Task: structure prediction
Amino acid sequence: MHFKGFVRGTCILVIVASSAQLLSAQAPKEITNARIDDIAANFTSLTVTDCASSCDGKLVNISVRDTAAQKELKNFKKGDHVSAQLGNDNGQSLLQTISIRALPVSSGTRILVLVVTAAVYFFITALLAKFHPLSFVLGLDKRYSNSKVQLALWFSVVIITYIAAIYLRAAEAGAEFLGGVNIPQNLLLMSGMSALTFGGAKGITTSKVNSAVQARLTSPKTSASAPSFWNLVQNDDGFFDIGDFQMLVVTLLAAGMYLVLVFNFLGSVEMRKVADLPNVDTTILAAFGLGHGAYLAKKAAGNAGDS
Result:
């Protein structure tokens, strides 16, 4: 009787132990920080390094059998750091879910980085201008130039946000993420429009002044006694100019909207080997293009002194 009880108890223990071992083998394994070292061309497998403490951990070969997971894997590149859940099939790791590893950044840190970056940028600008930085946006007629102001404003916003993004990536994610920040298409188009407006306005005005000089006429561009910020919404005669006003408003709107986008973007540093700055939406892109296009059109159609 005692022998039968002993055998029954032993069998139960063996069954329980086997079941626990089976469940443990089938339970998903989570990797919280892994660096992708290689992805198969057909996206059926990948190799990662476990970076739980440092990236000198063991290599893990992962099979990707699920079609949806293979499609998702196309969004990742070599060098990205990811979090993943792995299944197990006879000792072979199977990919179940994968996501890019992201590090949160507090609003205070973001504000501090943007403010310090802007301060350093403007100090360097002032230094290059012999501490008269507004001279960069003055025209030859001693008035503030709309085309120079919009170019300086937009360039400042883009370069400050770019440097801030580079710094935060390196500071939060590590030195291996220094650099690797791309400019998306719409942002590149807006930067090109800004440069085109500056160059086009300069060319139009220069051409009209030169034509007047060659015809031995009085120069249509008279110099102001002193620059004034009213120059940005008035023509040379001191009258309100709707073309100058709308371009200034569009540029300020675009710059303000983009700063908000960047502030939200920097709230989470994604550990991608190559990341994109936030893109602007098509509405802002269209408004920016229409505003600058209208400015150049009125510049070309009007006289040099009143447009």
